[in-house]
Amino acid sequence: MKEFIINKLRKVKFRLKDPYLINNLFQRLKKRNTRIYRFKDKYTNKTLYSPTLIQSDGGSLFLNFTNLYKNISSVIKANSIIIDVGGNIGYVSRAFSLFGKTFEIFCVEPDLRNISFASKNLCDRDNINILHMGLSSKFGRFKLDLPKYTKERKGEKKFNTGLISAVGKKDKFGIRFFKGDDLIKFLNLKNNNIGYIKIDVEGFEKYVLQGFSQTFQESNAICEVEINPRTMFLAKSNLKELLLIMKKFSYKPFIEEKVDDKYIESLKVFNVFFAKENYENKLINKVNLKKFNTSSINKYINVYQEFYKYSNK
To answer: Terminus-to-terminus CA distance in the chain, angstroms?
Structure first.
């Protein structure tokens, strides 16, 4: 509780000192597609950009108020390859670039508008490559759009480009999606150099994991997967499927300390971190993760199945 209050006070203090406070307020008066919010990276003092305030807040949180990626970077070996699948506007790639200066990072993002923001936000980093494509279990072409459920969200939240999905949108003129293992080969990367794969793809998680089968078999890469119940439902997928896929490659699931029973019962979005046994102690002791135990997994699966049993949401 004490740490929570301290973090809240830090955020309030940071926002009051935000040099872009007035600029960001005036963005609300502009047409939606012309809004550009700004925030600071406190480590480099660089101005960063986003299409919505919620993404600006999210980027600021990742970079300025949490130690998650700083801690993760400390347990990944030097000169590792980081693959940011669903890179959005680039703040996770930027975090790895800042905290892992010897890493080589590939920011993979299929949405062109997100790419435009990512290029601005990452242009000062020498160890990041931006790739305009999507990843799946095999080659395909998909149209991108915001899911229908986002229309229920209030205000600008319904336009959060971090929620753009390709689920159920095959299109012969769409963005090209490739198999992850094929991308590794095309880039001439060695599987034993892959240190981390972050996956935030709004319903495509199962397909991206399947596409990296050889990589998971031959590497010790840590894999972070966002669990969003609404997009999993749209994709006709579920947490159990993801756990079974990773279990085949001897991966164990971990979660952040904040993900308790109440968190799970409310079906909030959270991340699962998959790792092989050699990383277990490091993730627990240095990154402050905990095992995603059978009891919590079963609770989540039961709540998810009950909620979506008759739901069309």
So the answer is: 34
